[in-house]
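Please, structure for the following, as C-alpha cells.
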Amino acid sequence: MSLTSNVQVDGDRLWDSLAEMAMIGPGIAGGNNRQTLTDADGDARHLFKRWCEEAGLTMGLDSMGNMFARRDGTDPDALPVYLGSHLDTQPTGGRYDGVLGVLGALEVARSLNDLGIRTKHPIVIVNWTNEEGTRFAPAMLASGVFVGLHDETWAKSQTDRDGKSFGAELKRIGWEGDEPVGGRAMKAFFELHIEQGPILEEEGIDIGVVTHGQGLYWLQVTLNGKESHTGSTPMPRRRDAGLGLARVTELVHEIAMDYQPDAVGAIGHVEIYPNSRNIIAGRAVFTIDIRSPDKGVLDAMRERIEDGVATICEALDIGHAIEVTGHFDPVTFDPGCVAAVRNAAERLGYSHRDIVSGAGHDACWINRVAPTAMIFCPCVDGLSHNEAEAISKEWAKAGADVLLQAVVETAVVVE
C-alpha cells in the first residue's frame, strides 16, 4: 500500500494511554514525580511492558535498563527503525515530557496492527533510562552509555543525594537486563517530543521539524572577594562577590542577545557566602548555561564570557575561577530523516516549520551512531519541567501521525 493521509493513529487511544500512565507517580499539582529508578519508575515500566506485549511486541532489556520493544519486519536481516523517548520525569514534571514520545511510539505499533501494515524493516520502541538526570547526573545517561560517550561502570557508580547508586537502584527495582549496552545497529531513530518552548503554539503551527539541537556549555564560576560589614565598610573599599555576580549576570544576557535569534544564556544555580543579611558577600559560586546550534557561536560566547568575567573581576579587585562542568557540541540531524518528517507532515496536511531544539534529548546522543530526527508538537505557553505542562489531544495525535508516517516511510511498506 502507499502512504496516504488515511494512515493515522488512534488519537483517543493515545490520549487514554497518556492519562493512565500519568496515574503512576502522581505529583502534587496535576503532573508527575516519576524520577528514574524509583518504585514509580518501575511501575511505569511494568505497564509499558504489558502494553507492548498486548500489541504483539517482544521486549529486550539491556544492562542500563533501556527497554526495546520489537515489532518484526518481513526481512529478519534488515536493520530496525527505532523510535521512542523516556518515561522518567522531573520531581515536579509534567505528563508529556518524554512520555509522549514513548507512548506515541507504542501507538504507532498498535495502529500498524490495526491497519494491517507490514514493513520490511523491524520497528523497535525504546524507553531510555534516566533522560532527565534529575536523580542521577548527568542527563541522557543511559543513551550516553549506549553510544559510548560514558563508561557503564562509571554511570552505575553515580549516586543520588541520599548516596544510593544508579547500579544498586537499577537492581533493586528489577530492571537490569543481561543484554550488553550499545550492540544494536539502527537504520534510523525518530523521537517525538513536546517542544518545551513557545514557538509552535504562538505561531499556530502543528508540527516542528527539528533540524538541529543546540550545543551547550555549563560554566561554573567562583568569585572570591572579601567578607566585611555592610554598614561600616566604605563603598570604595568593598570587594563584593555579590556585585561581581550581578555584573556577570548582565554580561551573559548581553552576549546571548548579540547572537540572536537562536543563542540563549542565563545564570542558574547560585550560592552566596556567607549568605548573611549584614555581611558583604566574600564568595559567589554560580553556573552559566549558554546554548547555540552553531558551534562557532557557542565557542565565541564562551570566550567572550571568560574575557568579560576577567575584566569585571579586575575592576572589582576580586578573584575568579571558571570550570567547564558540562559540554556538548551542536547537533545536525540527518537530512534524510528530517525529510521523512517533513514529507509526513505535508502528506497529512499539517502545518509545519523547521525548528531548533533548545533542550537536550536522547536523540542528540543517538545521532552519533545512527541517522536521527525529532518531531515537536506544541505545548501550552511553552511550559515544561513543571506540573502545569499541558498539550491538547489534537497536538498529541498530529505528532504521532507524523511519527507513524515517517517511520513507515523509512521502514518500507510491504505490499
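The mean pLDDT is 96. Residues 295-316 form the longest helix (22 residues).
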